[in-house]
């Protein structure tokens, strides 16, 4: 399966470790990296979706391994396995994470801790283990962490907004501290992406109005986020570090229904129509 954007052998010989590879953005990224010639080790808590992702890549470049990235012992064992199997890790993609909708006053401490562990703890454990065991000894490597847009905050997801801000600052700080080891660290912040999870697990009224809140008037696709990650993994990203790349159709710059009233015609009809995401393939 060839990439639609990049040349096939762009990442030939590289080894990528990617969390949350069983669906959505993680699956699309694993397939894109493998199409570019990389060997991709994906992890998640359940074997079945990982195996399904691997089966979608006919060249056998994707391997799945169960791992709870919130647990230090499991993360260490995962990184050791990758090094034993491939001898190197060139790219780490921290994609695993999660949140749930709730007003801030209704979030219990247990729920808050759950989101912190899914996002902050997992990112730290994976990044620290890969850097310490693989990238610092090699004096090279790249880390990309998937966060969240808009950055001005999301009512109903206070816990996730806090966690994603921490992830981004983690990338910024480590980009400075580990520059002496030749490690580049960045974040990619997508807004609402039309993944199966978003389209089926979130309230219908929220999903139905999402496109109308984005200036480009459509939701993103998982492939569009994967292309940004692949760009950073490529030689084009060799001098890019400590940055946050917002991939959200302009959502980060606007809050509310789009277009605003001043962009309606004389009859009150909007001058911009909502559009569907481009078809995959």
Describe how the helices and strands are arranged.
Blueprint: E1 15-19, H1 24-35, E2 39-44, H2 47-55, E3 62-66, H3 72-86, E4 91-94, H4 109-138, E5 141-146, H5 158-177, E6 183-190, H6 196-201, H7 204-210, H8 222-233, E7 244-247
Parallel strand pairs: 1-2, 1-4, 2-3, 4-5, 5-6, 6-7
Helix pairs in contact: 1-8, 3-4, 4-5
Radius of gyration: 19 Å
Count every beta strand, where a strand is a DSSP E run of 2 or more residues: 7
The percentage of residues in β strands lies in: 5-15%
User: Per the principal axes of the C-alpha atoms, what is the gross shape?
Assistant: globular
What is the overall number of helices?
A: 8
Provide the residue-averaged pLDDT: 89
The assigned structural class equals alpha/beta
H-E order: EHEHEHEHEHEHHHE
Task: Describe the structure concisely.
By secondary structure, this protein is α/β, with parallel strands linked by helices.
Verbal overview:
The structure is a single chain. This protein is α/β, with parallel strands linked by helices and 281 residues long. 40% of the residues lie in helices and 14% in strands. The protein has eight helices and seven strands, in the order βαβαβαβαβαβαααβ. The chain has helices spanning 24-35, 47-55, 72-86, 109-138, 158-177, 196-201, 204-210, 222-233; strands at 15-19, 39-44, 62-66, 91-94, 141-146, 183-190, 244-247. A seven-stranded parallel beta sheet has the order 3-2-1-4-5-6-7, sandwiched between helices. Strand 5, helix 5 and strand 6 form a beta-alpha-beta unit.
């Amino acid at each position: 399966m060839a990439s639609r954007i990049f040349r096939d052998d762009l990442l030939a010989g590289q080894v990528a470790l990617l969390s949350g590879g069983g669906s959505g953005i993680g699956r699309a990224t694993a397939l894109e990296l493998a199409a570019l010639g990389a060997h991709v080790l994906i992890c998640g808590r359940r074997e079945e979706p990982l195996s399904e992702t691997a089966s979608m890549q006919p060249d056998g470049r994707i391997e799945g391994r169960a791992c709870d990235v919130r647990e230090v012992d499991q993360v260490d064992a995962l990184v050791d396995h990758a090094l034993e199997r491939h001898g190197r890790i060139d790219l780490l993609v921290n994609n695993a994470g999660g949140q749930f909708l709730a007003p801030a006053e209704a979030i219990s401490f247990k729920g808050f801790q759950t989101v912190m562990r899914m996002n902050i703890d997992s990112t730290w454990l994976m990044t620290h283990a890969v850097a310490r065991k693989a990238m610092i000894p090699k004096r090279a490597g790249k880390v990309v962490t998937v966060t969240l847009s808009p950055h001005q905050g999301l009512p109903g997801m206070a816990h996730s907004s806090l966690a994603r801000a921490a992830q981004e600052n983690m990338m910024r700080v480590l980009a400075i501290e580990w520059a002496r080891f030749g490690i580049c660290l960045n974040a990619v912040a997508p807004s609402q992406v039309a993944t199966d999870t978003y389209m089926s697990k979130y309230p219908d009224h929220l999903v139905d109005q999402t496109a109308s809140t984005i200036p480009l008037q459509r939701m993103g696709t998982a492939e569009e986020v994967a292309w940004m990650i692949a760009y950073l993994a490529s030689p084009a990203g060799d001098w890019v570090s400590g940055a946050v790349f917002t991939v959200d159709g302009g959502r980060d710059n606007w809050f509310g229904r789009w277009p605003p009233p001043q962009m309606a015609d004389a009859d009150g009809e909007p001058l911009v129509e909502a559009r569907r995401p481009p078809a995959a393939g």
